[in-house]
């Protein structure tokens, strides 16, 4: 038995030279350790680590600043700054006398991947080692090839559809992408009806937007939920492309449902035909925000895939506040254009926009934990 363990260790060492190898990655197994309120912040997570597998390996523990770590309910570590340290399996078994340990991390800075536990062999260049879906180490800053192929295939299809749309509807595309046109609302003042919304040119445009949102969402899953995606769907090219297309059509359907909901709420609040200008004002903001996400994502996919995670964390947070301020801008515009009281318009926007958006944002942030 000892000879087998030594052989496995020696083989892994020869295959990677001086680079470390990740044997088990627990990053996708963290769970919230307490009941959260609807607007609560996840500052306490836990997971169970099996110490019987790979007994010759080490546990690499990465913690954010101001972390408190409990092992099986007992205080174990305190950190003041971002910390990375190693403990061998033998040390942990000798210290706690158990074959599995429950780690609980409490910190006000539990952003995605800030807390990390991995079972590794070796310590050199560990942060640069990425495993492909087949388990092959990809050393360096480069993205796995299936992810790269998917990303630029999706980007090419989106740009191709945009080019087709520009050839078929050049004036409409220019008006759709003109920010000031929403403020004046001159492009939709005489066409705010359901029949116009369901015309081919509008649906085609919304499909392109849905493809942009879906690509950003799938890329976010690859970055923040890689283990889950690999387990349930797969990280190969065809699987990523399929989930992108299904997501795009799903977002298209949800967008149509959203417009119908806005139209119904607008009717209940007696706002006339304001729903069309309302809908396309915020749709423009989504287009601008999604474009920034895709362009920044393309840069990191080409140059430094490891930097995509912090970049997407910032982008998604920025998009959240961008949309909130967009709803505030819409409120000010509607105040100046419609003869309704402030609380009437504010209630309308809360029901039609803010509450659904905050629920969706809460759910998305939960995925990123």
Report a brief summary of the structure:
With 369 residues, this protein is an alpha+beta fold.
Give a written overview of the molecule.
- The protein is an alpha+beta fold and 369 residues long.
- It has helices at 2-16, 89-96, 145-168, 170-176, 179-184, 194-197, 200-224, 226-232, 237-268, 274-303, 308-337, 342-368, and strands at 21-25, 31-32, 44-50, 58-63, 68-71, 74-78, 83-88, 100-106, 116-121, 129-131, 137-139.
- The strands form three sheets. It has a five-stranded antiparallel β-sheet with strand order 2-3-8-5-6, with no helix packed on it. Strands 1-9-4-7 form a four-stranded antiparallel β-sheet.
How much strand? 5-15%
Main beta sheet = 5 strands, antiparallel
Count of helical stretches? 12
Shape annotation = elongated
Q: Give the integer mean of the pLDDT values.
A: 78
Helix content: 55-70%
Give the radius of gyration: 25 Å
The poorly predicted ranges are: 1-19, 127-142, 187-195
Secondary-structure topology with pairs:
Elements: H1 2-16, E1 21-25, E2 31-32, E3 44-50, E4 58-63, E5 68-71, E6 74-78, E7 83-88, H2 89-96, E8 100-106, E9 116-121, E10 129-131, E11 137-139, H3 145-168, H4 170-176, H5 179-184, H6 194-197, H7 200-224, H8 226-232, H9 237-268, H10 274-303, H11 308-337, H12 342-368
Antiparallel strand pairs: 1-9, 2-3, 3-8, 4-7, 4-9, 5-6, 5-8, 10-11
